[in-house]
Amino acid sequence: LEHYTVGFPENIFWSEDDLQDKKIIECSVLDQRTVEYCDKHQIYGKVVRVSQSSMQHIDGKVINVDFFVKGICKTADDDDAGEEGQDSFLAPIYVGAISSKHVGEKDNALVGEKRANPSEGFFGCDEFGHMYVSGHRIEEKFGGFRKSSTVGIEIDYTDDSKKAIFISVDGLRVGAIRREVEDGLTPCIIVNGMGQIV
């Protein structure tokens, strides 16, 4: 997790509110900026946002945050179906930004089969390269990302009529979301499977 605008990595942290339940997510002892999914029963998904105190350091209209993906869980892509023609249950990492209206602990809780879906108000991508607008998958797609990838999220508010989110993987811009982008988005990840570390 790195922030270009601030320029000092110690100034950016995860939201304490999202780290309360240690059964689902926990910070690394060695690096408080590394979080790991740890629900052994894999019942819950968790939105983990960049802290509001970190966001207060931002003066400009462009927000750049990088997420270093240290681990992913083993999943199959949409094209791989089970023996009886059923889709495999996927639990990808999502990287992007979430609406300031997001309330994850109530009606929008990521539980059961919902845990592997992005929350309402999420703008970004999953590890397979699918892109999302307000939690809904859109047609645009890129090649995705994998373990040891750095996924960059740039939220551009410079023109009120053309707000956009740009996605980069390992320094290359691979996607853009230019519709329905809201003010006040907070960079985040959504984790929901064992082995996912960011």
Cα end-to-end separation:
8 Å
The gross shape turns out to be: globular
Instruction: Provide the gyration radius in Å.
Output: 16 Å
Kindly name the structural category. Answer: mainly beta
- Spell the H/E element sequence: EEEEHEEEEEEEEE
Strand content: 25-35%
The main pleated sheet reads as: 6 strands, antiparallel
In DSSP terms (H or I, runs of 4 or more residues), the helix count works out at: 1
Count of extended strands:
13
Polypeptide structure, described:
- By secondary structure, this protein is mostly beta strands.
- Helix content is 2%, strand content 32%.
- The protein has one helix and 13 strands.
- The protein has one helix spanning 52-55; strands at 2-3, 25-27, 35-37, 46-49, 62-68, 94-98, 122-126, 130-133, 136-141, 150-156, 164-169, 172-177, 186-191.
- The strands form three sheets. Strands 4-13-6-7-8-9 form a six-stranded antiparallel β-sheet, with no helix packed on it. A five-stranded antiparallel β-sheet has the order 1-5-10-11-12, with no helix packed on it. A two-stranded antiparallel sheet has the order 2-3.
- Strand 10 (150-156) and strand 11 form a beta hairpin.
- The radius of gyration is 16 Å and the shape is globular.
